[in-house]
Design goal:
heterodimer; A: 5-stranded antiparallel β-sheet; B: elongated
Chain lengths: 164, 772
């Protein structure tokens, strides 16, 4: 029998179950696992895997800023989760990644966004109220220093010293 | 009962698992005898008028299957009861084919027939257009093929209705369907499909497998009517379209019906494997390259089987069988397995499913490349994202290789506003979105980009097979190594510069980490390309690389991209934008980092100002020291002598190359110096620091002028010399132009590069063969 291609896909898929629940499942290929092990110099089993659920209602999500986010630890073998008690009429996206000791999160896979629709058969209000919430800044913006081949300093005196 | 108010909808279900498990068909025969034939009998005798039957492809195949009908007849012969004899008579009357009866009744408007999804899939869990098409479009096509008449309605299991389903039904000119709704009101979807509310509480009849979803859509009447009662009472019902004709629609509430995901409510820890498998196999269909068109039908059929909701009714019991079928799907998808005669193959037992040979692949995207090499390049920057020379190099090399007949794919960073995929000069450019593009930690930012590149590369690998992976610099190291491992193909790396060289040594932890990444990338690469002898020496010194492992291919220059016709309007607008004076322009371009040596211009400008020699330095490019340099210029009151103008377009660069008196590149570290070639191609006298690759390009007093690295006074002397000696300057410019256009051709570099690739591909092939 051929190697298991399906289990070696790198995917994270989320599906609405009802007005407050989302089912999310994921899988990593062997090669991605190996790459990540090498990046973090840690075996996959020992990595602190986590799922970050972002509430991205009304936002053009860029991977950093969300209205709210929830972090949940995962085991190395876990490949699905049921998210319960979520607020309805909000849009969520889930990232599977690694959380370091300082709490910083490194995303590896991202799910499709899921809009949790209320069960009542009412007219859907398409106008989002996302702008009313102050975005929680998970990370800061673009750093000009490393939009290039190395991490450059913008302190001229410090750089000069390297050439002395 | 008021017949004017009712629609009878009966769902003719044939459980797919019968096909697979070859269970005893007796229960099914009994259902046909006790329910289906009496139903058809009443249609025929016109005791039942206006009934609507939902028929899946699987069910139609069963009804039309000669062997099934023969087995059923044989079964009936064993019994002498009135019911069995009546069924036998009915079967004989229709030439032993239950389908013939259905077809006749439908064609003669004695009953309405409508299709449903091919294998009773839950449409709300489907994630791709392709699979939705497979379940709905194929069902309509097969239905039409059987009945030789187009259906006007469509039934969606569980009444799930989404925007995609709406659009799809509209495109097939369907007129009505049934949706879950708590209200009685008839509605129209945004696409104009009539939506019958379904099921109303108490109206659905829970029966056996045969008519699992038989229902009477009793829109106004209060009576409950089941299939069994209907058999006894029979009666007159309305066809859906007839019913809809006299109804006032409530247009405004249509959107609210979207997103009904009743089926997803069934998902639990016990059966979640089903939904995750359906969705993963969908993802698989989305990325797979059908290298063997002969298996396309089999793959689609297998997916249809896997996505059938039948599995869910007793998932625990059928889980082993389901996993076996998943393995078969996997087997069929695997690129090295075109074998169709496997004993495990689902094909042998699937005649019931539907005529497989006639499946029209919905999105058959065979993307096989013939001839030349298939090269996957990874480069963090690619035009129009141009930070340094790397982007220009990869752009020129990739299109020269494409022009030479190779299939070149480039994985690079996504830039807002640009397409994620485009074909540029024959090169397939894939711009990759990092999941965290603004991560504050530099190495994490690089890692995030690499994860995205690796994921995209692996995905591309399903459609394309690569002969070689070509990495450019350490920023793409992790992804390049991952892809080379996955494809088991040689990794060739071009080192454009080193961290040690960029910083004049390794001074901190970050630089050390980058240095180690460079070392690891070089170690894992089959071969290293550098652009100058200077760089080769640097790698040997820093990383102890064997001489033979390093190839030197210089950068090339495409004069067409540099020598634009002078655009007077653009020239004027640049003049206006930066407020340049009439004094001679000394032009330079590059990243505003210390190693490029632009600080020398500020010192030189101070001296020129003192000497009252009127010149103006114009420096284009951006970088971390841009702000600092601008501040210094302002503090020293050199605003009219030095202009740090920031990023400019290629077109603006060309206009400045035309407008300037000379070009100067005062780098402290420069592995090659492609910008010097650009100045030479523009026929401008070129002054360069005597360092790195620049020394190989410019010969002093022949093709340009050189000065000692970091020496401002020597630089000033060179500038003054060119200002005073116009004739010599013109001669130097002409020589420089000739050298740049003859010795640095991308065509030649592409040939040399592909020869190197070819050599390593052959070596690698031998290695793999030896291993096997």
């Amino acid at each position: 029998m051929a190697p298991n291609l399906i289990q070696n896909l790198n995917v994270c898929i989320a599906t609405q179950l009802d007005s407050s629940r989302i089912y999310v499942h994921w899988s990593f290929s062997e090669h991605i696992r190996e790459m990540v092990e090498s990046m973090f110099s840690t075996r996959w089993k020992e990595l602190n895997l986590a799922m970050c659920t972002y509430d991205i209602t009304g936002l053009h999500f860029n991977g950093h800023e969300s209205n709210r986010y929830y972090m949940k630890s995962l085991t190395a073998h876990q490949d699905f989760m049921f998210m319960n008690s979520l607020e309805s009429e909000r849009t969520y996206v889930m990232d599977i990644g690694i959380q370091d000791k300082e709490g910083s999160f490194f995303s590896l896979l991202r799910s499709n966004p899921v809009y949790l629709m209320k069960e009542q058969h009412e007219q859907v209000n398409v106008t989002s109220l996302g702008w009313m919430y102050e975005p929680v800044k998970v990370h800061q913006g673009v750093q000009n220093e490393f939009s290039t081949y190395s991490l450059y300093s913008n302190d001229l005196e410090q750089v000069k010293k390297q050439y002395e | 009962m008021n017949s004017d108010d009712c629609i009878l909808l009966t769902y003719m279900h044939y459980p797919l698992l019968h096909v697979l498990q070859a269970e005893n068909e007796y229960p099914l025969f009994e259902q046909v005898t006790n329910e289906f034939i009496p139903f058809l009998d009443q249609i025929e005798s016109k005791k039942l008028i206006g009934a609507t039957a939902v028929m899946s492809c699987v069910f139609l195949n069963v009804l039309n299957d000669k062997e099934f009908n023969a087995r059923y007849a044989q079964y009936l012969h064993q019994f002498s009861s009135r019911q069995h004899q009546k069924a036998l008579t009915f079967l004989k009357k229709w030439d032993g084919s239950l389908f013939s009866a259905c077809k006749y009744f439908f064609q003669h408007d004695m009953m309405e027939c409508i299709p449903t999804t091919v294998t009773n899939a839950f449409v709300s869990i489907l994630k791709t257009e392709q699979t939705l098409n497979l379940q709905i479009t194929e069902a309509i096509r097969v239905f039409q093929q059987f009945f030789e008449k187009k259906p006007v309605g469509f039934f969606i299991q569980q009444g799930e209705y989404t925007h995609q389903v709406d659009m799809l039904l509209k495109s097939h000119e369907m007129r009505y369907t049934f949706v879950k709704s708590s209200t009685d009101e008839l509605k129209k979807s945004p696409a104009g499909i009539i939506l019958f509310p379904y099921p109303k509480q108490g109206k659905q009849v829970e029966e056996g497998t045969m008519n699992k979803a038989s229902a009477v859509l009793d829109l106004k009447a209060k009576d409950t009517l089941g299939f069994q009662r209907m058999q006894a009472a029979s009666g007159t019902f309305q066809y859906p379209l007839d019913y809809a004709r006299n109804i006032q629609f409530h247009q405004n509430e249509t959107l609210a019906l979207y997103g009904a995901t009743k089926s997803a409510e069934f998902v639990s820890e016990n059966n979640q494997l089903f939904i995750s498998t359906v969705q993963k196999t969908e993802a698989m269909l989305d990325v797979i390259d059908f290298k063997h068109p002969s298996v396309v039908n089999a793959i689609y059929r297998q997916w249809l089987l896997l996505s059938s909701s039948d599995w869910l009714y007793n998932f625990k019991k059928v889980r082993d069988e389901y996993e076996r079928q998943v393995k078969l799907f996997d087997f069929l998808c695997h690129e090295e397995n075109p074998r169709m005669d496997s004993e495990d193959s689902f094909l042998s037992g699937s005649s019931f499913l539907y005529p497989a040979k006639e499946i029209e692949p919905a999105a058959l995207s065979v993307n096989q490349y013939k001839g030349g090499l298939s090269i996957l390049m990874l480069a963090w920057e690619f035009p129009p994202l141009v930070i340094g020379g790397l982007a220009r190099h990869v752009f020129d090399l990739s299109r020269a290789l494409a022009k030479a007949g190779h299939h070149v794919s480039v994985l690079t960073t996504y830039v807002e506003g640009l397409p994620e995929y485009e074909r540029l000069y024959g090169v397939h450019v894939y711009r990759v979105k990092s999941l965290q593009p603004h991560h504050p930690d530099f190495l994490t930012w690089v890692n995030s980009l690499n994860v995205a590149m690796a994921l995209r590369g692996l995905q591309l690998g399903y459609k394309l097979s690569f002969d070689v992976i070509h990495a450019h610099d350490w920023l793409v190291a992790s992804a390049a190594k991952c892809l080379a491992d996955k494809t088991d193909r040689p990794l060739i790396t071009t080192i454009h510069a080193t961290e040690h060289g960029r910083n004049n040594g390794i001074h901190n932890d970050m630089q050390q980490k980058i240095h180690l990444q460079e070392e690891e990338l070089i170690r894992q690469s089959s071969s290293i390309i550098v652009c100058s002898d200077y760089m080769k020496k640097e790698l040997i010194t820093l990383f102890h690389v064997e001489q033979d492992k390093i190839a030197i291919f210089p950068n090339g220059i495409d004069k067409q991209l540099v020598v634009d016709a002078v655009n007077e309007r653009l020239k004027e607008s640049l003049q206006k934008k930066y407020n340049f004076r009439k004094a001679p322009i000394i032009f330079s371009i590059g990243r505003i980092v210390y190693e490029k040596g632009f600080q020398l211009f500020i010192e030189a400008a101070e001296l020129f100002k003192k000497k009252q020699i009127d010149v103006q330095f114009v420096v284009a490019g951006k970088g971390p020291l841009l702000h600092e340099f601008r501040t210094q210029v302002s503090e020293k009151e050199l605003d009219k002598y030095v202009y740090f103008i920031g990023y400019i377009t290629d077109n603006e660069r060309n206009q400045l190359l035309q407008a300037c008196k000379m070009v100067v590149f005062p780098s402290l570290y420069e592995p090659f110096g492609i910008v010097a070639l650009e100045g030479m191609v523009a026929k401008k006298p070129t002054i360069v620091a005597d360092t790195g690759g620049l020394s190989d390009i410019v010969s002093h007093f022949d093709t340009g002028l050189t000065f000692a690295r970091g020496d401002t006074f020597e630089l000033i002397n060179c500038i003054e010399f060119l200002l005073k000696n116009e004739k010599t300057a013109a001669k130097i410019s002409e020589n420089g132009y000739r050298k740049a256009t003859t010795m640095f051709s991308w065509e030649k570099i592409a040939i040399d590069t592909s020869k190197l690739f070819q050599h390593h591909i052959c070596q690698d092939k031998k290695r793999r063969e030896a291993k096997n």
